[in-house]
Write a structure and sequence with these properties.
RNA pseudouridine synthase; RNA binding; Pseudouridine synthase
């Protein structure tokens, strides 16, 4: 990603906060399999400040859309409290395989991280499962449109667990299109169809208005969304 490319992805900016439209396929942090990641490019967003903005939360590598950055220590502390208290309005768009029996509902299923240790014959791995012994996880959802075979759903997570929406859509019986971990095909032809559509933040100071930002769907989701009734707005 070039400086111009990251600048073109700014959805909102003020003295405290930047909201980026994160591209699908780019992890936010460095990792064993992630030599290229978003934090390498944040210097382009200093705008005269001594340090680059920092991540207030995270999105999975293959999830696109609204990502909140804090520009200084005070902003990071306030954002951290908001996210910890579930006071951030977040909505995701996804396209799933199949159609739920109802037009809206809530998945209230605790989720647990299950780790398979590394051995001399195989690499270790982990995945998330619905399990009563896990952490509380709640997702509200509603159908926005459908072809019958595919359904466009808006998900509003009330908790912020790793892979929450993906696991809850599987629990609903409608896995996310293109999900290699929790979907029907371990090698799907389509990329992951999960997008952070909206984020809303309370004012970080009394003199400022609330923040509400939307990110346009990524190119790889537009055909499926259009088939399900999205009009491009």
């Amino acid at each position: 990603m070039t400086p111009d490319e990251i600048l073109s992805r700014i959805l909102y900016q003020d003295q405290d906060v930047i909201v980026l439209d994160k591209p699908a396929g780019l992890p936010v942090h460095a990792g064993p399999n992630s030599p290229d990641h978003l934090e390498l490019y944040l210097d382009a967003l200093k705008f005269g400040w001594n340090q680059p903005p920092r991540l207030a939360h995270r999105l999975d590598r293959d999830t696109s859309g609204c990502l909140v950055l804090g520009r200084h220590d005070k902003a990071m502390r306030r954002l951290g409290k908001m996210f910890m208290a579930h006071q951030v309005d977040k909505a995701y768009w996804t396209v799933v395989v199949g159609r739920p029996a109802q037009d809206s509902g809530r998945v209230d299923s605790p989720i647990l991280k299950v780790v398979t240790p590394r051995t001399k014959d195989s690499h270790g791995f982990w995945r998330i499962v619905c399990d009563p012994k896990g952490q509380e996880a709640v997702t509200d959802w509603r159908v926005m449109g459908s072809t019958g075979d595919l359904t466009w759903i808006e998900c509003v997570p009330r908790t912020g667990r790793t892979h929450q929406i993906r696991v809850h859509m599987k629990e609903l019986g409608c896995p996310v299109l293109g999900d290699a971990y929790y979907g029907l095909d371990p090698q799907p032809a389509a990329p992951l169809h999960l997008h952070s559509r909206r984020v809303g933040l309370r004012p970080l100071s009394p003199s400022k208005p609330a923040i509400r930002v939307e990110a346009p769907p990524p190119e790889h989701m537009r055909a499926a969304l259009g088939a399900c009734g999205w009009n491009g707005a």
